[in-house]
Specification:
57 residues; mainly alpha
């Protein structure tokens, strides 16, 4: 969605810097989502493993 908005802004203004900045914002958002997914998976795995340790006792 942001990439389309960036492209439309570039077509209207002709300013390549605006396009590049908006594409970079899109990249940052993607990286943040990936980091959240990884952190969420790690938390779930940690909780599951901790529960298994208590079951063994």
């Amino acid at each position: 969605m942001i990439k389309q908005m960036a492209w439309n802004t570039f077509k209207n203004t002709g300013d390549i810097n605006t396009f590049l900045e908006l594409v970079e914002v899109e990249n940052i958002e993607k990286n943040m989502l990936e980091a959240e997914k990884q952190n969420g998976n790690n938390k779930s795995e940690g909780n599951r493993n901790s529960g298994e340790q208590f079951k063994r006792l």
